[in-house]
Specification:
This protein is α+β, with helices and mostly antiparallel strands. 23% of the residues lie in helices and 33% in strands. The chain is built from nine helices and 19 strands.
Length: 376
């Protein structure tokens, strides 16, 4: 049986088209992918992200443990700050990409990809067995929900929602003073509540995590207060087009256990100055000796061409040869042309390089571009 978040009845009430996503029954769209996409780019939309794993990691040695299994440097995190990071296997391949928030020196909150949560927890527990110090506890918060509120009008909406110090004494001015990757959190009646200035759309926004009962109260208030701001519910379809325009990777597409953060273009989230971590030697070797393939963004020059995952990427010219493959592809509502992400041989990866995308046997012209693919 598919899993459901605490908002499932809301999705049905709002007329969502539901699909299976990583074992979860989730909304693909409501009013339509393009409408929802444009709502987030120009106004404000909200997403159910309760399918993502929430793991509470505590203990005297938790920071040391996380610094060993994560690529980024936990020690650079100040309290009430979060960071994007990755977990690698011994071959340098990516177990998952995730967010980690520092609650205090011995407590951390992580957000995991839905399709990888079980794998991540199992892998972390396995690594904990071989860790030199054991004072670490992992707790998967299975009764928590989560919402993302995204778009340029987000701050106005948040000011309205939290104007009465709704978030347990944290007022709207405090929330809106948060900078990117900062957060507030409280622990009350055994529950963990966290609101961060983060997102996965390329727009300003907040992500809110808390026990299901609280989240149900919040969504009622959100829908009530959001009407005057043009707030709309958004599904996974718009989330995918938004993140592709932003050039953000999706696990299972740009990342997997055979692709390293270096190949994925995520070197800035790998800290070689912090000491040893899992996969370090392979990643260092890749930096020193180079890599054969790397992740690129591209924009279609052939306006009729719509790239899809798995399509071949060919060299441009009279005798095209395969040089890579598409990992994500869609029609960009903002650019009104096909865009995508993929992997090509490093020698062909420079921005401005023309390529072909093999779309059902026809070579359609495209150009490699810097990320984000869409810039306001």
């Amino acid at each position: 049986m598919k899993k459901r978040t605490c908002f499932f009845d809301y999705h049905r009430k709002l007329g969502a088209r539901l699909i299976d996503f990583g074992g979860w029954e989730m909304p693909l769209q409501y009013s339509g992918i393009i409408d929802e996409h444009n709502t987030v780019r120009n106004g404000v939309g909200f997403f159910d992200i309760g399918h993502m794993g929430q793991c509470y990691i505590t203990g005297q040695d938790s920071a040391s443990f996380l610094n060993w299994i994560f690529t980024n440097d936990i020690n650079k995190l100040s309290r009430y700050h979060g960071q994007y990071t990755l977990m690698c296997n011994d071959r340098g391949g990516t177990i998952d990409d995730l967010y980690v928030f520092k609650l205090n020196e011995e407590s951390f909150f992580t957000v995991l990809n839905a399709s990888r949560t079980d794998t991540d927890i199992s892998w972390m527990k396995d690594k904990l067995e071989s860790f030199s110090v054991k004072s670490v506890k992992l707790e998967l918060l299975q009764s928590n929900g989560a919402l993302a509120i995204q778009g340029p009008k987000t701050e106005c909406l948040v000011r309205e929602i939290f104007s009465g110090k709704y978030f347990f004494g944290i007022n709207s001015s405090d929330l809106c003073s948060l900078r990117k990757n900062e957060f507030f959190h409280i622990e009350k009646n055994g529950g963990i509540y966290l609101i961060s200035r983060t997102g996965y759309t390329g727009e300003d926004g907040f992500e809110i995590f808390g026990p299901n009962v609280f989240m149900m109260e919040l969504i009622d208030l959100l829908v009530q207060k959001g009407a005057e701001f043009g707030l709309k519910p958004c599904g996974l379809g718009a989330r995918d087009t938004l993140r592709t325009e932003a050039g953000y990777p999706l696990y299972g597409h740009e990342l997997n256990e055979e692709i390293s953060p270096i190949e994925a273009g995520l070197k800035r989230f790998v800290s070689f100055g912090k000491g040893d971590f899992i996969g370090r030697s392979i990643l260092e070797s890749q930096l020193k000796n180079g890599i054969e393939k790397c992740c690129i963004g591209f924009k279609m020059l052939d306006k009729q061409g719509l790239p899809r995952p798995g399509f071949d990427i060919n060299s441009f010219g009279p005798e095209p040869e395969k040089i890579g493959f598409v990992t994500s592809g869609t029609m960009s509502p903002c650019l009104n042309t096909g865009i995508g992400l993929g992997y090509v041989q490093t020698a062909h990866a420079a921005a401005g390089t023309r390529i072909y995308i093999d779309i059902r046997g026809k070579n359609s012209a495209a150009e490699i571009v810097n990320k984000p693919i869409f810039k306001k």
